[in-house]
Amino acid sequence: MNWSIFAIGKPKLGFARAGVEEYAGRLRGFAPVTLECLKASSREAESALLLQRSDRMVRIVLDERGEEISSRALAGKIAGWEQRSIKSVAVLIGGADGHTDGLRKAADWTWSLSKLTLQHELALVVLYEQLYRAYSIKAGLPYHRD
After folding, report:
1. CA 119/CA 123 separation, integer angstroms
2. Distance separating alpha carbons of residues 122 and 134, to the nearest angstrom
3. Which of 19, 75, 90, 139 is least surrounded by CB atoms within 10 angstroms?
4. Per residue in 109-129, pLDDT tens?
5. Model pTM?
6. Of 77, 87, 129, residue with least CA distance to 1
7. CB under 8 A, 24+ apart: contacts of 72-75
8. Contact present, 146 and 41 (Cβ < 8 Å)
9. Would you state the pLDDT for residue 53?
10. CA dist 60 to 13, 18, 142, Å?
């Protein structure tokens, strides 16, 4: 399964870039993951661009109003998508003003990393780490501890 992460704004914080690079490297052995940083603009324009870029993919919208799940449940979701032969998954990270209602309605799943509002660079690092954690759970690696 191929993962495309579409994020509004480019990571500028050094620690966030380093975190993304660290977990992107770890993920290479499990699944192809690409990150495309899109230019910030109005919330409506950002949502339209995210919808356009994620066309024909399973859409996961990161939003504080979404479903909170455990890392094991995420691993189970990924396994389910693999069993259904899902080829492409897009994770959509909005800008400072979030997503439009229309984008949320177009999502296949709305996922909350936390009830806290996360700055988009932090959300990106947490996303990468959780994808790595989910794949390590699926592979039976000792990274995750219950």
Report:
1. 6
2. 18
3. 139
4. 999 999 888 888 899 999 999
5. 0.94
6. 87
7. 72/137, 72/144, 72/146, 74/130, 74/133, 74/134, 75/133, 75/134, 75/135, 75/137, 75/138
8. no
9. 97
10. 24, 24, 27
- pLDDT tens for 2-13 read 999 999 988 789
How many residues appear in the chain?
A: 146
Q: By the 8 A CB rule, do 62 and 119 touch? A: no
Distance of CA 103 to the CA centre of its chain: 15
Q: How many helices (H) and strands (E) does the chain have?
A: 5, 5
Rounded to whole angstroms, the Cα distance separating 41 from 125 reads 22
Residues 97 and 24: their CA atoms lie apart, in Å, by: 26
Cα-to-chain-centroid distance, residue 26: 16
Contact partners, residue 59, CB within 8 Å, separation at least 6: 90, 92, 106, 107, 108, 109
Q: Which two tokens stand for residue 70?
A: 């455990």
Residues 6+ apart with CB under 8 A from 70: none
Q: Which domains does the chain have, with CATH numbers?
A: 2-138 (3.40.1280.10)
